[in-house]
């Protein structure tokens, strides 16, 4: 069988690592990993090489001719670059267009949200999408809702503190607004199906594991843990005011990682829980295809099942060993 030749950017990261696992599990792909020169000798890249993946070392901001040569010959390019680095993909898009890439999957993999000042990093992604459309480059945009792994509240006993990346103990408005969630382990499975499907060329696709409200999550976590959660309630007005302040603080100090993260957290909170952007209905309104309708046989991991694994210590903490600003559990 001729395999789909994929060049994956971000395989050492969270989303890219999940995508790599899904492509390998599917078996239809020959995956090479694009890495930047400064990471070429890292332990994480060595591990990719040990797993049998070709490593393509290239600087996105270096020689354009070298970049075109590096990406030539791949059927599909998938990017899972970190959130702050979205615009680094612009040259990669130019190079993919020059090399005749058959499908470019830019780094979306977030909640469903229109551009235009709602979520800052969504607007960064939009500039990449526009560059794709400028070139008439074949593409697929894949959004996935919010990770289960980043949606867990802190338990009062403190017994899961070391496993949390952010403690989600705030409830916004009445807590009943639903939004889409994905188990990280489902992302790669969806991507593997979507990128080998002609129906998804030049389309946006949303894929999610579950559609739940904050109150649903509280119920599940209390039931699974046997603990009563300590929650803080914020009204719509309070949340919007905090987001405004987070933006003002960020604009005054745009190189601060923690200020960017605080801004980003409330961008997402307002988009998901107040504006109700991240719903299947809104995704369809925005022109997305629904992966659950395209692939009804795909079994996803619901939040309750995820919590069982989480409490049984079977879930790897995202960004383990990396210092990412606020990515540590809130202490009492
Ligand atoms: N839906 C959700 O809940 C959710 C949660 C988090 C993130 N996301 C989205 O997922 C996307 C990926 O974020 P992440 O947190 O998974 O990423 P991450 O773990 O920070 O990893 C980023 C990856 O990009 C690579 N990279 C960065 N700059 C590069 C360059 N110039 N050339 C080549 N490789 C480069 C890094 O490689 P090295 O560092 O090894 O060089 C690393 O593999 C973001 O767009 C974000 O919006 C979504």
Compact overview of the structure:
By secondary structure, this protein is of the alpha/beta class. 40% of the residues lie in helices and 15% in strands.
Entry keywords:
12 helices, 15% strand, 5-stranded parallel sheet, Rossmann fold, Isoflavone reductase family protein, NAD(P)-bd_dom_sf, UDP-galactose 4-epimerase, domain 1, NmrA-type/Isoflavone_red_sf, 2 domains, 3-stranded parallel sheet, alpha/beta, 13 strands, binds NADP nicotinamide-adenine-dinucleotide phosphate
Care to describe what's here?
- The protein is α/β, with parallel strands linked by helices.
- The protein has 2 domains: 4-145 and 184-206, 3-Layer(aba) Sandwich (Rossmann fold), CATH 3.40.50; 147-182 and 210-276 and 300-311, UDP-galactose 4-epimerase, domain 1 (Alpha-Beta Complex), CATH 3.90.25.
- The protein contains 12 helices and 13 strands.
- The strands form 4 sheets. A 5-stranded parallel β-sheet has the order 3-2-1-4-5, with helices on both faces. Strands 6-10-13 form a 3-stranded parallel β-sheet.
- Residues 325-332 have low confidence and may be disordered.
- The structure holds NADP nicotinamide-adenine-dinucleotide phosphate.
- NADP nicotinamide-adenine-dinucleotide phosphate binds next to helix 1, strand 2 and strand 7.
- Residues 3-240 form the NmrA-like domain.
- InterPro entries: NAD(P)-bd_dom_sf, NmrA-like, NmrA-type/Isoflavone_red_sf.
- It comes from Lophiostoma macrostomum CBS 122681.
- This is Isoflavone reductase family protein.
């Amino acid at each position: 069988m001729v395999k789909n030749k994929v060049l994956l950017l971000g395989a050492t990261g969270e989303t890219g690592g999940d995508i790599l696992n899904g492509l390998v599990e599917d078996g239809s792909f020959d995956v090479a990993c694009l890495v930047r020169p400064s990471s070429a000798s890292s332990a994480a890249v060595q591990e990719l090489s040990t797993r049998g993946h070709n490593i393509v070392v290239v600087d996105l901001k270096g020689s354009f001719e070298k970049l075109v040569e590096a990406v030539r010959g791949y059927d599909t390019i998938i990017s899972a670059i970190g959130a702050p680095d979205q615009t680094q993909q612009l040259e990669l898009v130019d190079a993919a267009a020059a090399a005749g890439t058959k499908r470019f999957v830019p780094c979306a993999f977030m909640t469903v949200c229109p551009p235009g000042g709602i979520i800052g990093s969504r607007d960064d992604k939009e500039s990449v999408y526009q560059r794709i459309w400028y070139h008439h480059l074949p593409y697929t945009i894949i959004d996935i809702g919010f990770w289960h792994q980043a949606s867990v509240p802190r338990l009062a006993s403190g017994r899961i503190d070391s496993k949390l990346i952010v403690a989600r103990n705030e409830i916004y408005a009445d807590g009943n607004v639903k939004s889409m969630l994905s188990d990280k382990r489902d992302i790669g499975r969806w991507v593997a199906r979507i990128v080998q499907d002609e129906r998804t060329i030049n389309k946006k696709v949303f894929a999610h594991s579950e559609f739940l409200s904050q109150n649903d999550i509280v119920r599940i976590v209390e039931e699974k843990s046997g603990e009563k959660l300590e929650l803080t309630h914020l009204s719509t007005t309070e949340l919007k005011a905090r987001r405004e302040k987070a933006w003002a603080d960020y604009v005054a100090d745009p190189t601060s990682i923690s200020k960017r993260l605080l801004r980003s957290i409330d961008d997402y909170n307002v988009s998901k829980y107040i504006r109700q952007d991240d719903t299947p209905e809104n995704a369809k309104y925005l022109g997305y295809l629904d992966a659950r309708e395209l692939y009804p046989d795909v079994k996803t991991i619901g939040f309750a099942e995820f919590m069982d694994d989480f409490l049984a210590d079977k879930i790897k903490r995202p960004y383990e060993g990396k210092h990412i600003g606020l990515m540590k559990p809130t202490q009492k």
